[in-house]
């Protein structure tokens, strides 16, 4: 039987009549009278500091604060828990025993691939940690931050998580979107979309991210509604190489929608890309991933009605250093229908559960999605995607680690399984390339349409 803490239980009582839905004017999030809790019963991020009653989820004691011995910035991140062994394995034959701790997507994946897919469950390690200044700014935001009208923006916040006392789905999703990822970062978000038989081509994608929100001393009022600059260049295969995407991600996408431009080397010109939003296909994804599935979810929330379903204890991908390890080849990862489960790690953690249902009159390929957010980082770790008939369509997993050189929790590999076609797309493979670099010096002038034309012609 699932054990609920007092905090979780009180929330679930309030949700007992079907969840709390926010479809109109959003409510303010500032709670200055609760700030003391962030050093008492809550972590600086706002999660429950205590473990669960069964002892299967430990107390949060600060997460990873020191990298493993021998680690140097720029290295692949060694596993800080190398001696951990699986406690048990969930398979297609026994998953019903663990049904209360699994998502619909996880259960469906186990049922679809009973002979090849499984989940090895390890001891739970609450490794999430963030820089001290992020804690300090999160505490400050807890006294001031509030949602803009209809939840499509954040006001009076800076740098840290805006809502350490989340009480509606918008606040939770903004905590995910504004989670600290460093100010300037470069990564190879290499992507593979195998056939149902497991044949594949590797698409090497280089990405840059300049986060204005995270700059020291800057508030949301200072950034002119531009949350971050995102630059993406395809390096291979040859038929796609040289294609570039530039995005200005806005904080309030109703006030100013996401701005995007593309450069095509064949045309040698920059043009606006108004369709880089919502459910348009992601780059080189064979239609298996939408643009708003980047980092599990990004963009505007206005096409859906959002409901917070409370907290659950669930087996989620966590501390996925095995999937991040240096030298693993693509052939070792890719199998028909799913990634190699021997490389994955799952742990029991508390997660926030949010349901997004398509509004009447709005268009999106998904009629409903269910999101599962890790309580310690607000990282979305699982998604269930439903089609227009209300049938489960896709299941997504973010296999995440603590990038302890920052530190931050972020995915190392995302996998999106199409359970109807038997195909999937996965991205983030950096095992044979340079790992994420979070401290690259960047300037906003690098991310204008004019600069995109210059970079595309090199």
Key features of this structure:
two-stranded antiparallel ribbon; 7 helices; 458 residues; alpha+beta; outer membrane lipoprotein receptor (LolB), chain A
What is the total tally of β strands?
Answer: 21
**What low-confidence regions span 5 or more consecutive residues with pLDDT below 50?**
1-18, 23-27
Second-tier CATH architecture: Clam
User: In percent, how helical is the residue content?
Assistant: 10-25%
User: For the report, how would you describe the main beta sheet?
Assistant: 15 strands, antiparallel
Strand content: 25-35%
Query: Looking at this structure, what is the CATH superfamily?
Result: Lipoprotein localisation LolA/LolB/LppX
Structural class: alpha+beta
Overall 3D form: globular
Number of domains: 1
What is the helix/strand order?
HEEHEHEEHEEEEEEEEHHEEEEEEEEH
Instruction: Count every helix, treating DSSP H or I runs of 4 or more residues as helices.
Output: 7
Rg computed from alpha carbons, rounded to a whole number of angstroms = 21 Å
Mean pLDDT: 91
CATH topology (level 3) name = outer membrane lipoprotein receptor (LolB), chain A
**Oligomeric form:** single chain
User: What's the end-to-end separation, in Å?
Assistant: 60 Å
CATH C-level name: Mainly Beta
